[in-house]
Amino acid sequence: DTRDMRVDGNVVADDGELKMLTETLNYEHARRVLVTTKPVQVLGNKMQLNAESASYDLASQKTTFDGKIEGTIFDKIDL
Q1: Residue 30 has what DSSP assignment?
Q2: What is the pTM of this model?
């Protein structure tokens, strides 16, 4: 009824440019966001980032990382 979803296990979300790896991923349809409250790793050609949790707003295409955040930028990127 809500269209909300939850995926558990070794979750890999891949859009062809970036990969997000985590244990649990929730989709909240009313807010149109993807949320993980578990540690998350984001891998791309130009960067690698680890955080304690994250949320991705599908409408604005913005990601918010929370907790201890560590990462590496391998090349020049536009922020």
Answers
A1: T
A2: 0.83
